[in-house]
Sequence to fold (239 residues):
Amino acid sequence: MEPPENKRSGGSNAAQKLIKSKHRVKEFGEVFTPENIVKQMCDLCEPDISAVDKKIFEPTCGNGNFLVEILRRKLTSIPKKLRKNPSLAKASITDFELHILWVVSNIYAIDIQQDNVSEARRRMQNVVFDFVNNYKNSADFLSALNTIIEANIIVGNTLSDPSKIIFFDFTPDFEAKTFTISKHTLKEIERTFEKTTTVNALKLKQAIQQLKSPPPKKRSNLTVKKPKHKQNKVQIGLF
Fold:
């Protein structure tokens, strides 16, 4: 399986296109981030953003400007000793291919526009094709690559109902050359991060106590107001 000729890059022309139409800017606030700004913002997130095992979520991915830059950085972090072209006779998936799939599976994204998602998926595939370049890839690898990208680069609205947005976590077993797959809604992921914190060794006890404590109650916007006239009902309104 090969990408179409002259489309093997991540799409530099696509990266520089800031809007698709004035209508989409007006209706959806759709404006794409230029490549130089993408690189600068990713630089600010180093070294985590390049780490192979770190997960990245793009809630408004557009046509994939951030996704392709993040993917390139993660791919170059794969250990060089794995970048060989071993015989495929012994295994359907090589260690090198498994690491690539792991990298791809750690990138999650969503956009409200189907055409943006389709373009972002193609650009991510092309980045991988560029990276493997002269390597001979197995059919299983190519099929798995497409499956993972389609599973975690999806159409949806993060503001409407996060409980209906589903992503898949792929945990690799490099010895068995398999993945353990688990399903999570965006709402579940958000709750997990609400219960997550990072501290140094001196503050472990304090951090654990805070996580054990119930979250502070949100103040209600409802107020109860008795009517001036004698009635049996109580009026409830928003003020």
Q: What stands out?
A: The first strand starts at residue 56 and ends at 58. The beta strands are 56-58, 107-111, 153-155, 166-173, 178-185, 222-225, 235-238. Confidence is low (pLDDT under 50) at residues 1-9, 230-239.
